[in-house]
């Protein structure tokens, strides 16, 4: 026989052998599946189980919890009180929050604001490595009765992360016009999926702070920014950063970075040092603002944040970490807020100019 015929016969034999093996394997699998299906379900035997459930283990209002395919986002206990043109929002505690970190825990905090007039935003402290944080913090908003009836209070729960964007765990949205303000409202509610309708993404910025008390030097390093809002017609921006110090609500010192062309994710790595005494740093505000440069028209502000003695939330934490770790640079990412929102909180005044003495006009 020719050599090619021998090779062909040999290949056919191998192929038949493989087909037989596959057929036997498939038949065996099908049999085992049928056996599993025909097996009766095991019944749970409750005999011997001691103890009983009580209503003290169930949080108030747990009968309206969402089960099934909906993601469990946990629950929040809050309070509302309105009197003398002031709304006080209490963030009491949260329970059964989902784990957002690899270690099976979260670092939760709550952000509170009122829409549609989002003039002030408050944040609770961050509670490390817990799914059942107890906050017990209260925040006050000045709002008249007519505006109150058209407003919604938003309580948004986040998982804190120093070096990346904070994850939203869930939120509560409560329409204020439907409440009876003759008494204090306090109740548990399930957190729902956060709404993105009102969130304007302005971007994030990362910078480090370092303070050396012995030399009275405050060093601010603008590292980078990302996902900045597009300000130009071409869908990009020409961003730069202003670093401003305000002392006792008055503008004091200012420096700025170079301009980065046509990017929404600029990398700066530029350092600025200010001489600030320890007594002054107790009364200082640090304002970081990102701007879009334009050759022919006025530069536009993309977003701002401020840190210092009057800051709250993540900004306050970053400032406190800097002061508690002298001589050590502390870096952190921050979300940018609108200029109007930051300016309304700061209410900065221009520096007081020293008048001329003995000047003849």
From TrEMBL:
What are the UniProt keywords, alphabetically? Membrane, Repeat, Transmembrane, Transmembrane helix
Q: What is the superkingdom listed in this entry's lineage?
A: Eukaryota
The record, for SMART domains, names: C2 (SM00239)
Stretches assigned to coiled coil: none
Question: Residue ranges of the C2 domain?
Answer: 72-189, 201-334
- Which residue ranges traverse the bilayer? 6-26
Q: In this record, what's one Pfam family?
A: C2
The entry sums up its family as follows: Belongs to the synaptotagmin family.
What is the protein's given name? Synaptotagmin-1 isoform X2
Species name: Salmo salar (Atlantic salmon)
């Amino acid at each position: 026989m020719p050599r090619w015929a021998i090779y062909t016969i040999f290949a056919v034999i191998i192929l038949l052998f493989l087909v037989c093996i596959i057929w036997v394997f498939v038949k065996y699998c099908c049999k085992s599946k049928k056996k599993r299906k025909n097996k009766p379900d095991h019944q749970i035997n409750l005999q011997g189980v001691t103890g009983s459930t009580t209503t003290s283990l169930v949080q108030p209002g747990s009968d309206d919890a969402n089960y099934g395919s909906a993601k469990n986002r946990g629950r929040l206990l809050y309070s509302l009180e309105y009197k003398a043109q002031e709304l006080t929002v209490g963030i009491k505690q949260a329970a059964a929050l989902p784990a957002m970190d690899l270690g099976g825990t979260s670092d939760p905090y709550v952000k509170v604001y009122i829409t549609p007039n989002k003039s002030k935003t408050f944040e609770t402290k961050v509670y490390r490595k817990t799914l059942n944080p107890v906050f017990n913090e209260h925040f006050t908003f000045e709002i008249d009765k007519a505006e109150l009836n058209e407003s919604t209070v938003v309580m948004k729960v986040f998982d804190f992360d120093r070096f990346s964007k904070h994850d939203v765990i869930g939120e509560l949205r409560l329409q204020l016009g439907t409440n009876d303000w003759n008494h204090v409202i306090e109740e548990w509610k399930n957190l729902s999926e956060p709404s993105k309708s009102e969130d304007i993404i302005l971007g994030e910025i990362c910078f480090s702070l370092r303070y050396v008390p012995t030399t009275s030097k405050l060093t601010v390093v603008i590292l980078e920014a990302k996902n900045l809002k597009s300000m130009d017609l071409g869908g990009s921006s020409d961003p730069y950063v202003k670093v401003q110090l305000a002392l006792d609500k008055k503008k004091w010192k200012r420096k700025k970075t170079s301009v980065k062309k046509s990017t929404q994710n600029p990398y700066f790595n530029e350092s600025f040092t200010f001489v600030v005494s320890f007594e002054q740093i107790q009364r200082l505000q640090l304002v970081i603002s990102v701007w879009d440069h334009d050759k022919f028209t006025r530069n536009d502000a993309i977003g701002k944040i401020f840190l210092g003695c009057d800051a709250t939330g993540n900004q306050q934490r970053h400032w406190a970490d800097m002061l508690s770790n002298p001589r050590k640079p502390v870096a952190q990412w921050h979300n940018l807020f609108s200029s109007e929102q930051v300016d309304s909180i700061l209410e900065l005044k221009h520096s007081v100019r020293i008048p001329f003495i003995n000047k003849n006009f």
